[in-house]
Amino acid sequence: MSNVVVVGAQWGDEGKGRIVDWLAEKADIVVRYNGGHNAGHTLVVDGQTYKLALLPSGVVRGKPGLIGNGVALDPEALLAEIGRMAAMGIRVTPEVLQIAETATLVLPVHRAIDAAQERMRAKPIGTTLRGIGPAYEDKVGRRGLRVCDLAEPALLAQKLEALLAHHAAWFRGLGLEPFPLEPMLSDLIAMAPKILPFVGRVWEQLDHAHSSGKRVVFEGSQAVMLDVDWGSYPYVTSSSTIAAGAASGTGIAPSRVGRVLGVSKVYATRVGEGPFTSEVTGAPGDVLRQRGGEYGVNTGRPRRCGWLDTVQLRQSSKVAGIDLLALTKLDVLDGFESVYLCVGYLLDGVRIDYMPATSAEQQRLEPVLQRFDGWDGSTRGTRAYGDLPKQAVALIEAIQREVGVPVAMVTTGPERDDAIVLQSPFA
Ligand code: IMP
Description:
This protein is of the alpha/beta class and 427 residues long. The protein has 12 helices and 19 strands. A hairpin with a 2-residue loop joins strand 15 and strand 16 (350-352).
């Protein structure tokens, strides 16, 4: 078995897109299994930057891509992204992209609900306002629309009317106008012929891929700390971001997903609200933001920055089933006199080595920081472990020790080959 699942091991934005791009060279298919266009995956290919939200990262190099049933798909966003890719010379056709019939549709009404929910929350989550959460709510509420519904316009109208009737009560309760059927219905009917050629049985394609010995990369979006079950609830997204989500979100058997590669920066960032124990406000945090270009790919929001939290990473690795780590953005730490790892927490003055379940307790945690010497000079573009400064090696080894998971890769720049590979993630 030689499949790999790529999972964000922190709060997202770890650089999963470029890791998937690197793996895609050796794989046959790349599959998205969760999230939607709330994701922002950046790839730099020959100096050209590609920002993907819904498309599997392999499409940039013409690798066949699949979008699984676990994805929340906004048809408007998908067509816009395909258009942006075309303008950059990348043709996304049904030959290279197939979408699961049962993927949930994200509709304009979901964006309106997302915005209204955020406005009424005493403590906003800081969602991407893309409508992702409300679309998943409708899915589990058993009233959602799915990609296959686009094929039957008459039924589509009925289902949409029922959905809007459900939400009308909520909108009225807030003193808002219920969301109108038009132009949403006509727009969907107009988009359907453009989307339907991409629609297929993703589960079956994955089964064939397995029988014919093909290598599949499952591309996770967001991250363990944003997982609806394992993240810092309620400051999370609404999907299963972990390796288990790769099975339920595509139709492949859990025993076939392969090795799990967790991606983590050598420091930490978070976008949106919620607890972030190792956050550094002020000087070193600002330097990390500026050097690391820590602004949202799709929303442009500045990311909160801090030191790597090995307690979080250890716990996340256990629940997400992470077998190997890819550490990204080592070069961002170049020139720091001191670098820190969070190696424990104080909860009301008592040292603990796990992340407590409640948000209130998570907010009260204080980090136990361990200092490491920084290094002079640049690690940018380094491709051999032996060429790293000894202080960088000491930091990587400390991360590996604290987390208890082997480091398979370290990236040192944005290009695909700016990486040190210690172990192939493919079995
Ligand atoms: P939603 O997914 O738009 O509902 O947002 C829920 C939370 O997940 C917010 O804190 C977002 O900032 C965060 N989030 C969603 N997608 C991403 C991502 O791709 N990277 C980082 N954070 C994300």
